[in-house]
Design brief:
244 residues; elongated; single chain; Trypsin Inhibitor V, Chain A
Length: 244
């Protein structure tokens, strides 16, 4: 029986054509098209442009050195320009101080905006600063008064607790130092002592003596002309401070 080869060739050609068509249809599914990539790239560029154009808040750099101001602006995503006095050039920025900025602090500007910084030499600011008012000199003490002052300081540091009048009496007493009343008074006045604190010291001494004091008896002892001679107010303050 003889079979013709033509039908077989025809069937093979049809099968091959079908395979090619299938590959062509399936090809787009293998990956994104160039047009899709282009769209995605455009969207990414737009997002970056939007991000870079976001506004920034200008920090306050007035009073900072030019170098510190530059660092602060850089951290905020901003630039800077220095504006020194006419004829001057900023070389070492750490030696210059910002006295004015534009735009002002708190302003909203685009990222990368350059902030104009008016700067002056830091040394010129120090030279222009007003000098502190001189401390008024105290009264000049005589030699005798200076000696009385030394004695008075020694009594206050003894931890006994002296009142203003009690210390003067001690300095002038013939059984004490025997200074003239004027010299003793001048010395005690120049001390500017905290007499409330001295009253507290004396009160603590009485309480630790073991004699036993009430509030009233302690106040009377501290303020008595035969005792410590503190003022009634100082005595009351001391009694309160030691818990009575």
């Amino acid at each position: 029986m003889h079979i013709s080869a033509r039908p077989l060739i025809r069937h093979a050609f049809i099968a091959a054509a079908a395979l090619v068509a299938a590959l062509v249809v399936a090809a787009p599914l293998a990956g994104p098209s160039s047009s899709a990539i282009a769209v995605e790239s455009q969207e990414s560029s737009a997002q970056l442009a939007t991000t870079s154009s976001k506004s920034k808040t200008v920090p306050n750099v007035v009073g900072k050195t030019a170098s510190d101001a530059k660092a602060a602006l850089k951290k905020a995503g901003l630039g800077y320009t220095y504006s020194p006095p006419s004829g001057s050039v900023v070389i070492l920025s750490k030696n210059w101080t910002v006295t004015k900025q534009s735009p002002k602090a708190g302003s909203k500007v685009k990222s990368g905006t350059k902030i104009k910084l008016t700067v002056v030499k830091s040394s010129s600011l120090k030279a222009a600063a007003p000098s502190a008012a001189p401390t008024p000199a105290g009264p000049v003490l005589s030699v005798a008064q200076q000696q009385a002052l030394l004695a008075a300081k020694g009594y206050l540091s003894s931890g006994m607790g002296f009142s203003y009048q009690g210390l003067i009496d001690q300095l002038t007493s013939p059984y004490g130092n025997g200074f003239a009343a004027a010299d003793a008074t001048a010395a005690v006045d120049s001390l500017h002592a905290d007499w409330n604190a001295q009253a507290v010291i004396a009160a603590k001494g009485y309480l630790s003596s073991g004699q036993g004091f009430s509030h009233q008896s302690l106040v009377e002892q501290l303020s008595s002309p035969y005792g410590n001679k503190f003022t009634p107010e100082q005595a009351e303050y001391a009694a309160g401070q030691v818990g009575l």
